[in-house]
Amino acid sequence: MKERRYSVNFRQRDIAYTPPCGMDATIKLIDEMIRGILSRYADETGDSNLRFGHSDVEIKNGFVKIYEDGGEDTEKIVSILRDYFSVREITE
């Protein structure tokens, strides 16, 4: 399985009017929000991972790791995330 990593953040326009006192709470909730959105479309949901077709998805601290067997699942996951968040692939 190949691993692909993505950094997922709120879009600037979505948090532009969040007061500083609420920013800390907003940032802490990003993993829950990512998981909540992706779990609607996942084939299987577990305690720590989601499954899309032949790919496993792990969410931690605003980073999404996709362990893929095929590119179709990854494209679907990234497309869903881009509808709600700012997404950037991390290449090493």
Low-confidence stretches: none
Q: What is the helix content?
A: 40-55%
Radius of gyration: 13 Å
Spatial separation of the terminal alpha carbons: 17 Å
Please state the structural category: alpha+beta
Biggest sheet features: 6 strands, antiparallel
Q: Please tally the β strands and state the result.
A: 6
Q: On the 0-100 scale, what is the average pLDDT?
A: 89
Oligomeric category? single chain
> Which descriptor suits the 3D outline?
elongated
Strand content: 25-35%
Given the structure, what is the number of helices?
4
**Strand order of the main beta sheet, please?**
2-3-4-5-1-6
Q: Tell me the series of helices and strands, N- to C-terminal.
A: EHHHEEEEHE
Description:
The chain has 92 residues and is an alpha+beta fold. It has helices at residues 12-15, 20-28, 30-41, 71-84, and strands at 2-9, 44-45, 49-52, 55-60, 63-68, 86-90. Strands 2-3-4-5-1-6 form a six-stranded antiparallel β-sheet, covered by helices on one side. A hairpin with a 3-residue loop joins strand 2 and strand 3 (49-52). The chain is elongated, with a radius of gyration of 13 Å. The model has no long low-confidence stretch (mean pLDDT 89).
